[in-house]
Amino acid sequence: MKNYDVAVCGGGFAGISAALAAAREGKKVVLFEKEYMLGGLGTAGLITIYLPLCDGYGRQVSFGIAEELLKLSITYGAEDRYPANWLDGIGTRTENDTRYMVQYNAQLCAILLEKRLKENGVDIMYGSYAVDTDTENGRITTLYVQNKSGRIAYPIRTVVDATGDCDIAHFAGVPTETFKQGNKLAAWYYFTNDSGYHLQQLGVVDEPGQTGESLTKRRFSGLDGEEISEMVCLSHERTLKHWLEKRKTDPGAVISTLATIPQIRMTRRIVGEYEMADAEMHTYFEDSVGMVANWKKRGPVYEVPFRTLYNKKVKNLIVAGRCTSVDEDLWEAMRVIPCCAVTGQAAGTAAAMTDDFSALDISALQKKLVANGVVLHEKDIL
Fold first, then answer.
1. Which residue in 49, 309, 362, 369 has its CB near the most CB atoms, within 10 A?
2. 227, 258, 289: which is the final residue of a domain?
3. Could you tell me whether strands 301-305 and 288-293 are parallel, antiparallel, or unpaired per DSSP bridges?
4. pLDDT tens figures, 11-20
């Protein structure tokens, strides 16, 4: 099949950011996405809240493509949570004010993300997902992709694993860890009524200050096909039950949109050259490739070490998104959209520069990131 400089596996916000970054460095990029819309959990999964780019105390910490995609998602207006203090400069930005986050329309966002990738020359392969690799002398040489055409072998120079499940690393024999706590059940859906179009966050809630409700005591690994199918059926069952109860007081309510992928947050991650811990907030890392905040609480800022994105066992593989190398406590903060975009931009830029991440000149990578709007260190926040 076609030869590409960079293959990105997974079309969520991490993969989109990686593909954009690599393409903007002049590389020939392909993005493989198993669904037929981009955005992952943020669109097909209906988790349509672009969580904060700020630390909750008035300082923006995530920049570059992370901010670009937030603004892109509300090109035609926000559904809710429009932060006028950040986007329009109206009001103040203190610990008592709205954080830099938005709620967007899933379908519009997916179309706009596709358009942005196509404008930057990225080839998108829908209905396509990696199922295996050939690895030789510490390098992935071939990526096997399954789609309607069958099983296709792609010769590979560099791979970005943005699958969310660390699938490519797993196939290639890179050390990984699974999420030991398991995932709680979620059943988010949209409904319409006389007052408009609404997001119903049922079960697990991804929003500052909210905890959600427990729909079942069962936890889900997200790595077993039979279990995932059972989870989706339970989600649909809870949705129906919730809607029928809602109709008793709101007879005009109609379910308008269901998630088309399971709402699984964390499954498997890489064991990188460095594992970042939740306790390392406000820690300076010389090899930082960007910063992220903690969506669950105000205050923490984390610099992201480049070493959390790869394991030198496989030289030409880098990860982005929710499968970077962090401890169990930090994983919950690192899995969300802004963090996926920050690590995606770093991974894609690095993939455009080298096919051996352990030998990459970090200062050269950092210069490119800074030139593209990224702020690397907390001390540099204005």
1. 309
2. 258
3. antiparallel
4. 999 999 999 9
